[in-house]
């Protein structure tokens, strides 16, 4: 029987807990009716704790308590799935805050469970009783007057959690109507029982999961209607930005849980407008690992066949993309279209769709729209086009008769072999990779970076062309903007015809604002 929950014991708990949840996964899934009857709570909890266990296993053998609990916390945060998985990951963080800095005796576990209950409840914007929160609070309350004995604290917590689990049926109407206990709470009980087994060194091969009163097929539970999408993502952001995000997402939907800290957060919410939830994340920081799950039947029957969506920042560019067969989404220079606008375009384009963002600021929004469309049955690939000229090159080789994957490879290859540049006039002082620019300076951009600062628009544009063109170049595309002075395009073209008469030169009126000239070299 252990006296302290030291790092080796934490390792054993994480492995034993993951294995126990894996064995009980299907039984817990069968209980899942709240917050939505999607039948995956057991799976989500298993994957959450498995991620935590794998993170601890990756540590060197002599890792101390702080490193071990940090790894467990980060693994749970990164691997958290679903509403219950996210809440449980925050409970692990609460335990880590105490046990990572303490010897791990009975009093430390008691304080850790109290902190876990507090942090898990605080992470849920609108807590509901009869859930994992209720059971965790009951377990923490039960050990407050326990003696400072590790085994006694662990046993009391597990025993009270089991009793509290039975009470959840009467605490939440949807559980009572379906004759089940809360699925997330059932998973938590197994976690606490696994902890008690590790501490007492008395292991069980199986943990009881109360069976539902009647068999419930996923999606058939008696539950009230709710939002259509579950949206989850990891978010790199500061605490102030996350506080603002909580308010935005609370207004959009329900089942909102945001956990984490120190710049990395896991966001979970149920909403009707998945695009708006992701855009809120984009305003707060950098969302990644975006996952959108539709919580009902298919909401949309996509259009026929193969298609391409292209984002364009000028009327001329929009016309070029349309003529080439793309569904066009317009945007203003320096801004991104909404995820909703991109989603509408993807739906219009077909069942297999390539998306050309054509700007780095559009890429994340395009990925968000693609995630939503995939949940609706559309096959979507977002190509890494960072400039309109790359999008034009990709669209030039698009072949709807090819296999979709082969078509995406060909389009991506064409975009990747297109160097891109542009010129524009600075409107404020700023630090660039070429030095400090001031209002009125002409900036020459090569492959996304400011490569030179000039005084004359035409001379700077010619120098950008010189840097883009190489011995193997075959074609140059020049796209004039709405603000391009009349002599600019002829001067650049004349330079190319004199310096490289072998090149094919294509000129378009793009009509884009902000950038007098876009340049592509293939």
Overview in brief:
Residues 151-178 form a coiled coil. With 522 residues, the protein is α/β, with parallel strands linked by helices.
What average pLDDT do the residues reach? 89
Uncertain spans: 216-224
* Topology, number of strands: 16
In order across it, which strands form the biggest sheet?
A: 13-12-9-16-14-15
Indicate the structural class.
alpha/beta
So, the CATH homologous superfamily of the largest domain? Answer: DhaL domain
Please tell me how large the radius of gyration is: 28 Å
Shape: elongated
Which percent range describes the beta-strand content? 15-25%
The CATH class name of the largest domain reads Mainly Alpha
CATH architecture of the largest domain: Alpha Horseshoe
Predict the CATH topology of the largest domain.
Serine Threonine Protein Phosphatase 5, Tetratricopeptide repeat
Number of helices: 18
Pfam families: Dak2, FakA-like_C, FakA-like_M
Protein name: DAK2 domain-containing protein
GO molecular function: glycerone kinase activity
InterPro entries: DegV_domain_contain (IPR050270), DhaL_dom (IPR004007), DhaL_dom_sf (IPR036117), FakA-like_C (IPR033470), FakA-like_M (IPR048394), YloV-like (IPR019986)
């Amino acid at each position: 029987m252990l006296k302290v929950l030291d790092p080796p014991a934490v390792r054993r708990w994480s492995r034993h807990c993951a294995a126990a949840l894996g064995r009980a996964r299907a039984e817990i899934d069968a209980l899942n009716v709240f917050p939505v009857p999607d039948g995956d709570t057991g799976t989500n909890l298993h994957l959450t704790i498995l991620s935590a266990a794998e993170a601890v296993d990756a540590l060197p053998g002599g890792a101390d308590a702080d490193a071990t609990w940090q790894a467990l916390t980060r693994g749970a945060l990164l691997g958290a799935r679903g509403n219950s998985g996210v809440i449980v990951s925050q409970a692990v963080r609460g335990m880590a805050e105490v046990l990572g800095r303490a010897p791990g005796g009975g009093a430390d576990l008691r304080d850790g469970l109290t902190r876990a209950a507090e942090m898990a409840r605080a992470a849920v914007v609108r807590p509901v009783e009869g859930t994992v929160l209720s059971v965790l609070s009951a377990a923490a309350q039960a050990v407050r007057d326990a003696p400072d004995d590790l085994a006694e604290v662990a046993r009391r917590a597990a025993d009270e959690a089991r009793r509290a689990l039975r009470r959840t049926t009467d605490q939440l109407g949807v559980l009572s109507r379906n004759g089940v206990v809360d699925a997330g709470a059932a998973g938590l009980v197994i976690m606490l029982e696994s902890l008690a087994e590790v501490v007492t060194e008395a292991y069980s091969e199986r943990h009881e999961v109360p069976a539902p009163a009647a068999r419930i097929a996923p999606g058939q539970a008696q539950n009230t209607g709710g939002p259509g999408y579950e949206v989850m993502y990891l978010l790199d952001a500061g605490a102030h930005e996350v506080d603002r995000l909580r308010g935005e997402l609370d207004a959009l939907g329900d089942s909102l849980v945001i956990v984490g800290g120190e710049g990395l957060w896991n966001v979970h919410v149920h909403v009707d407008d998945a695009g708006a939830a992701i855009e809120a994340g984009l305003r707060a920081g950098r969302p990644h690992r975006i996952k959108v799950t539709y919580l009902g039947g298919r909401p949309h029957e996509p259009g026929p066949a193969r298609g391409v969506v292209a984002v364009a920042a000028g009327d001329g560019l929009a016309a070029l993309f349309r003529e080439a067969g793309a569904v066009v989404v317009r945007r203003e220079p320096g801004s991104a279209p909404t995820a909703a606008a991109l989603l509408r375009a993807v739906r219009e384009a077909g069942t297999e769709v390539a998306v050309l963002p054509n700007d780095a600021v559009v890429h994340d929004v395009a990925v968000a729209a693609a995630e939503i469309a995939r949940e609706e049955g559309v096959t979507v690939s977002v190509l890494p086009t960072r400039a309109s000229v790359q999008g034009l090159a990709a669209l030039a080789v698009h072949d709807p008769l090819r296999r979709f994957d082969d078509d995406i490879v060909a389009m991506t290859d064409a975009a990747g072999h297109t160097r891109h540049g542009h010129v524009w006039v600075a409107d404020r002082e700023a630090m660039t990779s070429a030095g400090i620019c001031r209002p009125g300076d002409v900036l020459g951009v090569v492959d996304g970076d400011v490569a030179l600062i000039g005084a004359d628009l035409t001379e700077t544009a010619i120098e950008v062309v010189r840097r883009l063109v190489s011995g193997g170049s075959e074609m140059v595309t020049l796209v004039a903007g709405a603000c391009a002075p009349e002599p600019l395009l002829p001067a650049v073209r004349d330079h190319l015809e004199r310096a490289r008469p072998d090149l094919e030169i294509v000129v378009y009126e793009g009509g884009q604002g902000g950038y007098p000239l876009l340049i592509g070299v293939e």
